[in-house]
Amino acid sequence: MGSNKWGRTEVSFEKPRFDPGFVSALRDARHVCVLTGAGISAESGVPTFRDAQQGLWAKYDPHQLATPEAFEENPELLWRWYRWRRDLVAEANPNPGHLALAQLAELVPRLTLVTQNVDGLHQRAGSRGVIEFHGNLFDDRCYAEGCIIVHDQQAEVPVCPNCGANLRPGVVWFGEAIPENALNESFAAAADCDIFLSIGTSSFVYPAAGLADIASENRAIVAEINPNPTQHAATYDFAIAGNAGVALPKLLESIAT
Ligand code: OAD
Questions:
Q1: Which terminal residue of the chain has fewer beta carbons within 10 Å of its beta carbon, N or C?
Q2: Is the pTM of the predicted complex or chain greater than 0.90?
């Protein structure tokens, strides 16, 4: 990570204010690029990826389940799992963290929001142009053709009306490529931004986790917001230890004053 004029500051959320250097940099930013992960939806009641799976699904490892191989082997099981996740997300609502990011987009000249989440909560909070790095839980795609299919089938495993192949949830599975547009737009935004915010992600999974490096290599200020500092926190310019649903509204207050 390149150093910058503020050096590397551990901004503990317990302090009543954010580092003044960070606040003024955000206030003066030309282009803010934000990467979010499951942590920003945690306060909406959506379990994060590396939290223990809940209840019925506790015995399954998502890394084993969210794969093309698992779908080919047992599409019925996959559809039950994704319907369970869809029901869970459908009952969730955007939290103050999602809403604050939608408001931040109105306060800076340009904001690019890249999310690893598939829950659609950023869009429900009012964010526009969200780049869904790992797809969307509520899209159904033809397993053979890849296109999104709108349908009203109730079958346990719906099928493509065009070619008869099984439909699959429109999310990126382990071992699958990131949608090309999402990848290109995210890389370009990370390279162009002057502030990069990594919010609610463990930053384990690449290429999403590499966006912060691209930003830093292009002289952006990089900050994370996470109650549990990630392994990258020490290399970021700022690390804000706190829950997104609390930290982001307070950050907005700081730049508005
Ligand atoms: P993880 O479950 O790996 O990490 C969630 C992060 O959110 C952790 O670092 C938590 O400390 C943090 N966190 C928890 N509560 C928070 C809160 N209230 N505010 C802010 N942060 C909070 O989820 P991701 O990093 O999103 O990929 O996982 C990335 C990818 O790994 C997922 O998109 C998925 C998974 O494999 C695919 O499905 C392809």
A1: C
A2: yes
